[in-house]
Amino acid sequence: MLKKIVLLVMLVLPLGAMAQTLKFGHTNSQELIVDMPEFKKAQESLKALEDKYNDEFKRTQDEFSKKAQQFQQDMSENTLPQNIAERRQKELQDMGQRLEAFQNEAYQSMQKAQMDLMAPITKKVNDAIQKVGKSEGLIYIFDLSSGVIPYIDSAQSKDITTLIKAELK
């Protein structure tokens, strides 16, 4: 019986000691990213690209609108021969399809540009999180920006956001 008690104590004692050494941390990666100068530059680049796409789309849309109005006016005045009317109608349809295709291409291009610009920023933040985690001896770091962590006991989890911000500078 004494052997069983000693064995039980020997098994439970390390678990209690191990539970005390486990260290957790938490941060908000979105807060870190938004504060970075690289993020602000990326946002400016994306805005400039978006403006270029919007300008081109507006220019093409204005051209399409003018041609459509002229076509409607010519059709209402009945001044176009049938074959010219059909050709212009086909031109307008083609132009509308090109406009729609351009809009889709612009959207995809913006998405790709955003991913390309954000990848090094995200990597830099993740590297800083890992470095701080290792230096602080943490076994887990929870990212509060993901929104899937319903509860953090701040007495048992260390907020390392300021340490990571310092690492990023």
From TrEMBL:
<dbReference type="GO" id="GO:0050821">
    <property type="term" value="P:protein stabilization"/>
</dbReference>
<dbReference type="GO" id="GO:0051082">
    <property type="term" value="F:unfolded protein binding"/>
</dbReference>
<dbReference type="GO" id="GO:0005829">
    <property type="term" value="C:cytosol"/>
</dbReference>
<dbReference type="Pfam" id="PF03938">
    <property type="entry name" value="OmpH"/>
</dbReference>
<dbReference type="InterPro" id="IPR024930">
    <property type="entry name" value="Skp_dom_sf"/>
</dbReference>
<dbReference type="InterPro" id="IPR005632">
    <property type="entry name" value="Chaperone_Skp"/>
</dbReference>
<feature type="signal peptide">
    <location>
        <begin position="1"/>
        <end position="19"/>
    </location>
</feature>
<keyword id="KW-0732">Signal</keyword>
<protein>
    <submittedName>
        <fullName>Outer membrane chaperone Skp (OmpH)</fullName>
    </submittedName>
</protein>
<comment type="similarity">
    <text>Belongs to the Skp family.</text>
</comment>
